[in-house]
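Morning - S-adenosylmethionine inputs below, output right after.
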Amino acid sequence: MLNQNQIPDTPKFFGRRKGRVVRKAKQFLLDCMLPQMKITPDMVFDAQTLFEIEKKEICLEIGFGDGQHLFGQALRNPQNGYIGVEVFQNGVANLLTLISGIKEGDNLPDTVDIHEFQVQNVKVFDDDVRLLFKALPDNFFDKVYLLFPDPWPKNKHAGRRFVNPDNLKEIKRILKVGGLFRIATDHPVYKRHVLRTMHNEKGFIWTAKCGDDWRKEPKDWVKTKYQQKAIREGRRPVFFDYKTI
Ligand SMILES: C[S@@+](CC[C@H](N)C(=O)[O-])C[C@H]1O[C@@H](n2cnc3c(N)ncnc32)[C@H](O)[C@@H]1O
């Protein structure tokens, strides 16, 4: 059988998809809860249909990891709709844990109904975001978050970095004019890579007016797991906000 990396016309993915073990509660959430929140590229992407009611802003988070930022934003902003994308199964399960409160060791119910949870404004695509891009309409999102993408710091791996002209073309297309594209990174090589690559992109302007605008966490920020690890290990995160023109 072909795996996804061998199917023609699908992009090669460089990274981990499954953890070694998915524990019992997480597997339960993946089986019972994820299907109620999951989106697929064959759906109609209309904000009202997707979120049942009209949402003020529609936001996309690419590679949400363990989901802390996505969950925090969705909790603070019930008026907005969020699409989170993550290929790593344990990360998806962790987001579901945050939303449902169901943890390892709990007595598991027979099933769950996502309408019972406080956070109801999140949809999930549990695969490579590049497979979703072609389904997303133009001018759809108000905000796109790319937080601590894998840095691939070696020169020979530079082609794997997510910030590249092909992905930026899609992000520009799916963002509304004046929409926000936020990139956070803690890696010196990736910092330079982002500044250089974004400088060459005509469709975005960097909003920073002074050092604090990119060295300090933005006002609406929610800390991520990867960010906390970086700080513990002495690396300094930066936050680049771009607007589409
Ligand atoms: C370094 S981690 C950062 C996770 C999270 N944003 C954080 O700050 O804690 C990068 C994440 O991006 C995910 N990722 C990488 N490429 C992706 C892609 N093409 N589509 C979806 N997720 C992707 C990885 O699985 C990983 O969880």
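Note: Strands lie at 58-62, 81-85, 122-125, 141-147, 175-185, 204-206, 238-244.

O.
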